[in-house]
Write a structure and sequence with these properties.
Layout: E1 2-5, E2 20-23, E3 39-42, E4 57-63, H1 70-81, E5 86-92, H2 108-121, E6 130-133, E7 137-140, H3 144-151, E8 161-164, E9 168-172, E10 181-188, E11 193-197, E12 205-209, E13 213-222, E14 230-231
Parallel strand pairs: 2-10, 3-8, 4-5
Antiparallel strand pairs: 1-2, 1-10, 4-6, 6-7, 8-9, 9-14, 10-13, 11-12
Length: 241
Amino acid sequence: MLFYPAAPRISRRADLSRRLAILGPVVAVGAAIVGGVLSAEPIGTRTPAPAPTGRLVVVELFTSQGCSSCRPANANLVRLATRPGVLALGFNITFRNQLGWKDTFAQDAFTRHQRAYQQGLGNDNVWTPQVVVDGRADVVGGRMAEIEALISQHRPFSGPTVRFGQALVGLAGGTVPARPADVWLVRYEPRPIAVPVARGENGGRTLPHAAVVRDLVRLGGWAAGMAVPWDTAFRRRPDPA
């Protein structure tokens, strides 16, 4: 899930630390805050809770299988996805699908997610490969040294506790947002995936992918004083192949 300030949209150079990420993989559940402290645990079970994730650095890569310069960026995300203290997410966008190869993971929702960062970070346009770290700063995804520099600047702060049930998720405690926010659920693949590309800039190559995002779904809104759960019934759908 991602927490965005609700309308009006984020202004240019706004502090994107207000974005909250609660991350539900395809086969497991985890939790993190972009720029904050967060924990997650099942509701009504004796299953051990996942470790607190407030110290996690969230690294989002916007990539495309039709982008030749995305190969090193994908490789960087594969490396980061195995690093303790880093939560990596790979969003495959759609605006390069007309260049000879239709990305097998791309969704319009992911392109809209990147364009929200364009506005919030004050960029003139969107591009691939783009890496956003903790929702606060971005860099070209192939520049590992610059990604590492942003990771080193991680600034955690107090946030709510996230609790998951069979088909519900709720927030409790922590610092409430200064204004109403939207809660989004992200489902991603926890294992690397290799994809052969037949045409386009990467034709004939097999591309590595890490933490491939499968779903980005708005659950509802959250504001001060709210403690109600959100329905995550869509999670009961069969997982993609």
